[in-house]
From TrEMBL:
GO terms for cellular component: cytosol. InterPro entries: aa-tRNA-synth_I_CS (IPR001412), aa-tRNA-synth_Ic (IPR002305), Rossmann-like_a/b/a_fold (IPR014729), Trp-tRNA-ligase (IPR002306), Trp-tRNA-ligase_bac-type (IPR024109), Trp-tRNA_synthetase (IPR050203). Belongs to the class-I aminoacyl-tRNA synthetase family. Keywords: Aminoacyl-tRNA synthetase, ATP-binding, Cytoplasm, Ligase, Nucleotide-binding, Protein biosynthesis. Catalyzes the attachment of tryptophan to tRNA(Trp). SUPFAM superfamilies: Nucleotidylyl transferase. A motif ('KMSKS' region) lies at residues 215-219. Its main location: cytoplasm. ATP binds at Q11, P12, T13, G19, N20, G147, E148, D149, I206, K215, M216, S217, K218, S219. It is an enzyme of class 6 (ligase). Signal peptide: none annotated. The gene is trpS. GO terms for molecular function: ATP binding; tryptophan-tRNA ligase activity. This is Tryptophan--tRNA ligase.
Length: 350
């Protein structure tokens, strides 16, 4: 039977927040039941926007600890950090030569992160999606759980796979290394799959608590904008209490959230934490004021996050254990990666 192969990554760049947890990590945990999973701390990616980091090793351990504390099983699945498996960089280079500069220039994340002074952005920031495509396709992953913000990068991953399959179609056929790949309505012979993003649910895009038009982000200068996984109960309650809202009561239908981004965001957070739909949240709180809803949300958040935070602190203090997990995961990922790269080198003629 077909078993999905899941790959995803999180950058080791501080301030792991509720958006990362609900939009990504919680989905990673759930997928373990049905899929073979590879979860990666993408340290190479963290150099793209900022080259010098205070403590990359500690940040890497902290994200690894978050994976483990959330319930990812490193024995049944693979947990490792990207820089251990040099094939990521090798395949990214080949993909840099497959992808077109125009494709990269169209990426909204690049435009956002580069800002006005694009000429001065690092080449790595521009090429980021090409490394991301390599991360995924090195394992020929079939599914990638991510937040909404990564949708465009996943489309680019498929474009790269398709161009590679197409440009090297003769060589892939000659070597007999192709498999049947569904491209839209058509079935073609290719080496890399058309990876499907797994985006969705009420928490696919958690917004800043201070500004309903911006996503909750590690890099937001305002600490009140996000709930960090490591925040204590008082801090979580304070941040939710101070979250921007409008003066109206909650509606009883999801349609009633239209044009109320801050209200919609808090309802989405509740739904994501409780594993229910927004409808069910409004069924319970429709007609209530935020003075009632916010304390209930704070209690739920503390309830769900406090055990993860405590476990995260315990695990990240045990350097030997965390380093062992990464070493073992890196070895297993490295073997899979080398199998793919042997064929890729053959296809390309290297
Ligand atoms: P960030 O975007 O916070 O810097 P990463 O790039 O490491 O963090 O993203 C890790 C994962 O978290 C990705 O799958 C990303 O899509 C998801 N993610 C990031 N921010 C949010 C958010 N505000 N809501 C939902 N998912 C998010
Ligand atoms: Na991101």
């Amino acid at each position: 039977a077909f078993k999905p192969l899941v790959f995803s990554g999180v950058q080791p760049t501080g301030n792991l927040h509720l958006g990362n947890y609900l939009g990504a990590i919680k989905k990673f945990v759930a997928l373990q039941e049905t899929s073979d999973c590879i979860y990666c701390v993408v340290d190479l990616h963290s150099l793209t926007a900022q080259l010098v980091h205070a403590d990359l090793q500690d940040q890497t351990r902290s994200i690894t600890a978050a994976f483990l504390a959330s319930g990812i099983d490193p024995k049944k699945h693979i947990v490792f950090n990207q820089s251990r498996v040099m094939q990521h960089a090798e395949l990214a280079w080949i993909f840099n030569c497959v992808a077109r500069i125009g494709w990269m220039n169209r990426m909204t994340q690049f435009k956002d992160k580069a800002g006005k002074d694009r000429e001065n952005a690092s080449l790595g920031l521009l090429a980021y999606p090409s490394l991301m495509a390599a991360d995924i396709l090195l394992y020929r992953a079939t599914h990638v759980p991510v937040g909404e913000d990564q949708k465009q990068h996943l489309e680019l991953t498929r474009d790269i796979a398709q161009k590679f399959n197409n440009d090297f179609s003769a060589r892939i056929a000659e070597l007999g290394v192709g498999v049947e790949i569904q491209v839209g309505e058509e079935t073609v012979n290719g080496f890399f799959p058309m990876t499907e993003p797994l985006i969705g649910g009420p928490a696919a895009r958690i917004m800043s608590l201070r500004d309903g038009s911006k996503k909750m982000s590690k890099s937001d200068p305002s600490d009140l904008s996000r709930i960090n996984l490591t925040d204590d109960a008082d801090t979580i309650s304070k941040k939710i209490k101070k979250a921007k809202t409008d003066p109206d009561a909650l509606p009883s239908e999801v349609d009633g959230l239209a044009g109320r981004p801050e209200a919609e965001n808090l309802v989405g957070i509740y739904a994501g934490l409780a594993d229910i739909g927004k409808e069910a949240v409004l069924g319970q709180f429709g007609g209530q004021q935020f003075s009632v809803f916010k304390p209930a949300l704070a209690d739920l958040a503390v309830d769900k996050l406090a055990p993860v935070a405590a476990e995260m602190r315990r695990i990240s203090a045990d350097h030997a254990y965390v380093d062992g997990v990464l070493r073992d995961g890196g070895e297993r990922a490295g073997n899979l990666a080398e199998t793919t790269m042997k064929t890729v080198r053959d296809i390309v003629g290297l």
